[in-house]
Amino acid sequence: MEREGPEVRAGKERRMAMAEEIRKLELVRDRLRGVEEIAQTYPEGHDMRTRLDDLHLERVISAVEEELRDLWDRTLHPRGT
Predict the structure, then answer these.
(1) Domain boundary assignment for the chain
(2) How far apart are CA 37 and CA 46, in angstroms?
(3) How far apart are CA 78 and CA 14, in angstroms?
(4) pTM for the full model?
(5) Which residues contact 63 (CB under 8 A, 6 or more apart)?
(6) Which of 16, 29, 42, 71 could crosslink 46 through cysteines, CB 3.0-4.6 Å?
(7) Per residue in 46-64, pLDDT tens?
(8) Which residue spans within the chain are E strands per DSSP?
(9) pLDDT of amino acid 81
């Protein structure tokens, strides 16, 4: 059995780190969507809905999804990994 060189190990570690980052970002996105759904259950003008609306969750979710797209792109097209 051949031993892995340092470059191969480094590449595997980078891929594993990216996979873990993707997993975490997907959890963040899903939980933010859940908070957004809960906010919609409050009637317009309700104090809690106003607070949650003021967080601009749609913008945060959009930013997380953009980061996910970038990570997936780097995973599919590793550029030297």
Answers:
(1) 6-76
(2) 15
(3) 10
(4) 0.79
(5) none
(6) 42
(7) 999 999 999 999 999 999 9
(8) none
(9) 47
Interacting residues of 41 by C-beta distance below 8 A, sequence separation 6+? none
pLDDT value of position 33 = 98
- The answer, yes or no, to whether residue 3 has pLDDT greater than 50, is yes
Angle between helices 6-41 and 57-76 (to 10 degrees): 160
pLDDT for 80: 53
What is the secondary structure of 32-49 as a DSSP string? HHHHHHHHHHSPTT-HHH
* Locus of tokens 């570690």: 13
- For 28, counting Cβ atoms within 10 Å of its Cβ (0-12 exposed, 13-18 middle, 19+ buried), the class is middle
* Separation of alpha carbons 59 and 65, rounded Å: 10
Average pLDDT of the chain to the nearest whole number = 91
